[in-house]
Amino acid sequence: MATKMRLMRMGKKKQPFYRVVIMEESKPRESSYVDLVGWYNPMKEGKVSFDETKVLKWLQNGAEPTDTVRSLLSKNGILKKFAEQKKQKNTN
Fold first, then answer.
1. Domain containing 65 — which CATH number?
2. Distance between alpha carbon 45 and the CA centroid of its chain, in Å?
3. Structural domain of residue 7, as residue ranges?
4. Which string of DSSP letters, residue by residue, matches 4-65?
5. What is the pTM of this model?
6. Which of 11, 25, 29, 60 lies in disulfide reach of 2, CB 3.0 to 4.6 Å?
7. For the chain, what is the domain count?
8. Could you list the mean pLDDT of each consecutive 10-residue stretch along the chain, which spans 92 residues?
């Protein structure tokens, strides 16, 4: 089961907000998800919230973020923490 960290569109017409979810790679955007790890609201100055422990756990388990989610994680410093954890794990 290949998993992806991707955005799931929610909200009304012309008022989107997105959940950041873990899904199987082959499922469509609006189907069921495995885990909810955060949300993104582009209508309110790009507000983003992540459950950092869940995100790091899923990244360690091999979940691949999409390009958009990768940029959101990078802006919040989570990818940097993941890289540091990976580096520490390799040096031990």
1. 3.30.1320.10
2. 19
3. 3-91
4. EEEEEEEEETTEEEEEEEEEETTS-TTS--SEEEEEEETTSTTEEEE-HHHHHHHHHTTPEE
5. 0.85
6. 25
7. 1
8. 89 93 86 91 89 93 93 93 86 74
